[in-house]
Structures are given as structure tokens and as C-alpha cells.
Amino acid sequence: MSITIFAIETSCDETSAAVLKDNRILSNVISSQLFHTEYGGIVPELASRAHISAIDRIADAAISKSGLDINDINIVAATNGPGLIGSLLIGLNYAKSFSLASGKKFIGINHIESHLYSCYIGQENINFPFIALIVSGGHTILFLVNDYFSYKILGQTQDDAAGEAFDKVAKMLGLGYPGGPLIDKLAKNCNENFHTFPKSIIKENIYNFSFSGIKTSVLYYLRKNFSYSGNINQNEIPLNDICASFQKAVIAALTEKTILAAKSFGVKNIAVSGGVSANSRLREEFEKYRNEGYKVSFPKQEYSTDNAAMTGYTAYLYSKHSDRKKFESDLYKPAFARFDYKNF
Ligand code: KG4
Ligand code: ZN
After folding, report:
1. Whose CA is nearest to atom 7 of ligand 1?
2. Which residues line ligand 1 (CB under 6 A)?
């Protein structure tokens, strides 16, 4: 029997709603809060308020775009964490209320888990095992995924997330927010060997990441060579080459550790997801490993950054491949800002 899923995602600064018929995305509407740019980063309280004013309109748009009716929905899904707590609460409570008022089943979806499956959106079944690299604004985690909902965390960032490093360096360089897409664009076809920003050395666990060192070395480079003290004149620095060189250092850490994990565990499938997976150079770099027999999957560009389609697809996988106990209890569980790795 086919199922219809209505999904909501508001973990950060995107208000998104989607409708799925089984594994097929019928609609995926996203409203991005571009106004944070003027503050150089996300202002949580303003993000929550913007979700409140957008959620009804986005939910309506997703349902009407899908061509279906509220009565056709069987399952309501929403991100329940991790994320900005105020933002999460808007979407989660909207979805719970929708579920209670309409008598539909509710399922809470872990945001990290939905990024993890976003590479396979639309697929009926997934090939296991695979190595998953999740690179977003809040997380950088390497997983071994053995089966549906069976994860082993191999490593994670010890300080900044990869996306956070992109955003902070972009801010230093006087670019806007979010910094990742801007650096990606400026770095295109520029000299990534212009300056060597050092890769971080991780002693305890080879699969852990650290990006604050690379970020700080950009700061020191700017201070030493351009007397940087907080304001930058972009015309006086080799902006594009700095972007390309910084990006190279981050991408090298991400690709090398992911491939090392794949080799060590004898796994040929790799899934790279989260906002930073939209990066064109990162995609190119992983592409090279296809020649060595690795199948590297990325989400479609529109599913790299936050979206409700991936939330809905993860709910679909739960409905198909789990014993559904989750559906009975999630309605009573609160949102969570932090990700409890031990229980994942
Ligand atoms: O997954 P996401 O939308 O939100 C979180 O869950 O955090 O990721 C947002 C992050 C931001 O840090 C943004 O700068 C980064 O993804 N990002 C990129 C690119 N597009 C988005 N980083 C590098 N290159 C890109 N093209
Ligand atoms: Zn995300």
C-alpha cells in the first residue's frame, strides 16, 4: 500500500515543507532567511520569528503543489533535532498540531540522519554498507552505515564544523553569509596552490576533524601580509586565490579521511551530504576516486542544504524498514538542540 508523507523542516534558517508519495518527492518548498546576511551570521531569535511567519504559507504551498489534499496524508514528519531550539520548536509543534488535529501518525526525524539519506532520495532501496560524510554548518561527522538506522560514528569535528569554517573565513574576508557558496564561486578556476594553509593534525582518532586551525591560519596570513585588523579592502588582497587555497585545505581533510575510512573498512559506497556537499570543488575531488572503484553519491543540489524532502524521505525509510514503534512515541518527545551520539 502506498503512503503519503507531509514533512516539515525548520532546524536552522530554512523553512521547508514537502509532500512525498512513498519515495517520490511531489513537492519541496523552501524559504531561506536571507536577511541574516546583514548580521554576518544567523540570529536565532530572528530565525524563530521568521519561521513563525512563513510556516503556514510554506506548508500550504507544499500541499497545493503536490496536487494532493490534506486528507490524502498518512504520515506527518518533522525534524526534532539537532538545531536551533527556537527554530526547531516552530516546525515540530506545527507538525505535531497538524498530526493531532487531523488524526495522522507523527514521526520525529533526526536532522543528521535526514542529511545522511539525502543522497539516495527517490531510491526505493539503498545499498549497504556505505561510508557517510556529513558536512553542514553545524556538523562534520564520518559514519559507517551498515544497514537502515544502524550507524557507527567513526569520527567528528573537535571544534568548528566545515561549513562553519567556510562561514567564518568568508566573514573575515568581508563576504556575506552563508560563506560557503560565496567562497565556492570566488575560488572557481583560481590558484588553489597560491598559499598552503596547513591541514590540522589529529592525534587520538585519525577520523576526527578540526577546522579552527585552518581558519586561524587564514587570520594570521591576513594579519601578516595585509595588516588585517578586522576590516579588509577586498581590492588589496588576492581574494580569489585566498578563497581557493583555504577551500583546498578543507576539502583535502574531508576527502582524505573519508577515503581512508572506505579503504580501512573495505567499503566501496560513499555518501557525502549536508550543505557543504553542494561545493563544486569537493564534488570534483571525490569524483576522482571513481577510477579506484568507489561509488560516491551526492544529493541533488537542492537537497544538499536544508530541505524537507530529506526529512520526508527518512520518514519513508522508517515506515518501510522499521517496526514502526517510533511512530507511537515521537508525538510525546520534545525537540533537542544537541545530538546525543551515544543513542543514535
Ligand atoms: O546543511 P545546511 O544547510 O545547514 C545545517 O544543517 O547546518 O548547511 C549550511 C552550511 C553553511 O555553513 C554554508 O556555508 C555551507 O553549508 N554551504 C557550502 C556551500 N553551500 C552551502 N559550503 C561550501 N560550498 C558550498 N557551495
Ligand atoms: Zn542541515
Report:
1. 137
2. 12, 136-138, 163, 166-167, 178-181, 184, 274-276, 278-279, 305-306
C-alpha cell recorded at residue 127: 545499498
Ramachandran region, residue 21 (left: φ > 0; alpha: ψ -120 to 50; beta: rest): beta
Nearest CA to ligand 1 atom 3: 305
Q: Whose CA is nearest to atom 2 of ligand 1?
A: 275
- Of 305, 310, 338, 339, the residue with max ligand 1 atoms within 8 A of its CB, to mutate for a pocket test, comes to 305
The CB density around residue 209, as the number of other CB atoms within 10 Å, is 25
Question: How far does the centroid of ligand 1 lie from the alpha carbon of residue 300, in Å?
Answer: 14
- Of the pLDDT bands very low, low, confident and very high (cuts 50, 70, 90), residue 167 is very high
Q: Write down the residue that cell numbers 539525502 correspond to.
A: 118
> Is the distance from CB of 281 to CB of 251 less than 8 angstroms?
yes
Question: Could you give the angle at the alpha carbon of 52 between the alpha carbons of 180 and 134, nearest 5°?
Answer: 30
Of 284, 213, 281, 289, nearest in space to 258 by CA: 289
Query: How does pLDDT run across 65-100, given as a tens digit for each residue?
Result: 999 999 999 999 999 999 999 999 999 999 999 999
- How far, in Å, CA of 164 to CA of 304, rounded? 15
pLDDT at 239 over 90: yes
Task: Kindly give, in sequence order, each residue whose CB lies less than 8 Å from that of residue 66, ignoring residues fewer than 6 positions away.
Answer: 19, 26, 27
Give the number of the ligand closest to the Cα of residue 186. Answer: 1
On whether the CB atoms of residues 18 and 311 are closer than 8 A, the answer is yes
Closest CA to 156 of 173, 144, 146, 143: 143
192-206, 286-300, 329-343: range with highest mean pLDDT = 286-300
- Going by alpha carbons, the residue nearest to atom 22 of ligand 1 is 180
What gap in Å lies between CA 61 and CA 17, rounded to an integer? 8
- Torsion on CA atoms 285, 291, 296, 299, rounded to nearest 10: 70
d(CA 178, CA 167): 6
